[in-house]
Amino acid sequence: MEELLAKATQGVDPDSPGAFFHIFINLMTMIPWEALFWWNLVFLAVGALLGWWRGRLMAGVVWALVLGPIGWIIVLLAPKSAKPPPLPR
User: Where is the chain membrane-spanning (predicted)?
Assistant: First the structure.
């Protein structure tokens, strides 16, 4: 924890008015954004696949986007969608 705190406060004067913002930016640069982006795409693709299989494509996409793998469980536990009635001609 001390190592993380040292990295976050590196080059920051704690008494300056912008210290919080500078520490926040230092913490955000330590996050592996590229890996998080690709994992999110995987979660979204699986959620879309599960939603399509259950007849609830948009629900699968939205739940996977918001909750990731937990959204998959919600989509799987929701009742299957009945076929929509045909449109009148």
Answer: 36-53, 60-79
Q: In Å, what is the CA distance from 79 to each residue of 32, 69, 76, 82?
A: 37, 18, 8, 9
Sign of CA dihedral 73, 74, 78, 84: negative
Taking the C-alpha atoms of residue 42 and residue 59, their distance in angstroms, rounded to an integer, is 16
DSSP code for 87: P
Nearest to 47 by CA among 35, 62, 33: 62
**Secondary structure E strands in the chain:** none
Between CA 48 and CA 65 the distance in angstroms is: 10
Nearest to 27, CA basis, from 7, 11, 13: 7
User: With contact defined as beta carbons under 8 Å apart, do 48 and 64 qualify?
Assistant: yes
Mean residue pLDDT across the chain: 89
Could you give phi then psi for residue 44, rounded to 5 degrees?
-65, -45
